[in-house]
Amino acid sequence: MARARLSGGGSPGRMGRVTTAHASADPAGSVSDSSAPDASPVYGGGHPDDVGDGGPDPDGDGRGGADPDGNGDGNESADGGADADGDGDGRAPGPVADLAPIPARGAGLLVLAGTPIGDPADAPPRLAVELAHADVVAAEDTRRLRRLTQTLGVRPSGRVVSYHEVNESARTPQLVEALTAGDRVLLVTDAGMPSVSDPGYRLVAAAVERGIRVTAVPGPSAVLTALALSGLPVDRFCFEGFPPRKQGELLARLRENAAERRTLVYFESRHRLAATLAAMAEVFGAGRRAAVCRELTKTYEEVKRGGLGELAAWAADGEVRGEITIVVEGAPAPRPEDLGPEELAALVRTREEAGERRKEAIAAVAAETGVPKRVVFDAVVAAKKAAGPA
């Protein structure tokens, strides 16, 4: 089956080298992806008769390097050698055994790979193998990918393209086309797992809709690392991503979260940390326990624990640097004496809206609050009468 060609610009080709930010000076003709806000280079360019380092393409297959096994598929192994195991897939034996099963031609596979959140040594071993054997590597920032591949000592053998929030909508159909043609596509983001507050969701949804297999290479997670270090309950938690930037929207979101019993996890920019912690102290209460985790797994890792009021003052008192994850204790269980008929009826209504039958919802609210079931039932009946006929 013919393979779909995907490149970031220039003549379609396959470059096995990580280019620099000055890709325009590359004699091989590699180009930068002008759609990226940071002008991240795309490894998909280059003349089809040249490899990424400007060397010749003796067999003229456009893949850069000879086809020593002579099977005409141009699929040399990652180091440019022959298909040593003779299985016709063009991949070397050995580390490939650590891969998810390599699909047959025409049966593409999307691989989501976690990347280090700070310390490059945390990269999962399978990440290097996937980078070496993927047909297409889609990276949030190709410059960061270059540094990572240098650290891992691996050279991507496939095409490398940018995939970020600016070009995600346009790039997704191209990647789906490559998957449909049988390519193994590896998706990586700057740090952590694709789709988790990072690009990836649209591509996964599109692949699933087309019946394309999706798998993952698990890796480091800022969410789980922060939870583990926070000193707060982690048996149940809720991840909220980045809170809204505008003050009104931020307060509205926090009010939605105020009664959440599970531990809450947020990402936040260092520039907005003080304002966000102050808003949390206002809505959740200054005494609600929390932890601010910054620079996780890096040299200057720090976890600051305390009440939200204390943490807000700490953040306002000096510039907090680095990438930040906030962990906030869940709301305390309501006391029976604080719950009137309206509050009890509202708790039952919330459970009904989630799909529970009224009898089950009443029993659950009674068990959760310590209020007798008869009292909860009477509160529901009173609320129904007050609302009038439906």
TrEMBL record:
Keyword Heme: no
Root EC class: transferase
Annotated Pfam families: TP_methylase
Region (Disordered): 1-100
Domain of life: Bacteria
Any one cellular-component term (Gene Ontology): cytoplasm
Coiled coil (residue ranges): none
The keyword Nucleotide-binding is annotated on this UniProt entry: no
Catalytic activity, EC: 2.1.1.198
Role: Catalyzes the 2'-O-methylation of the ribose of cytidine 1402 (C1402) in 16S rRNA.
Name listed for the protein in its UniProt record: Ribosomal RNA small subunit methyltransferase I
Organism: Streptomyces clavuligerus
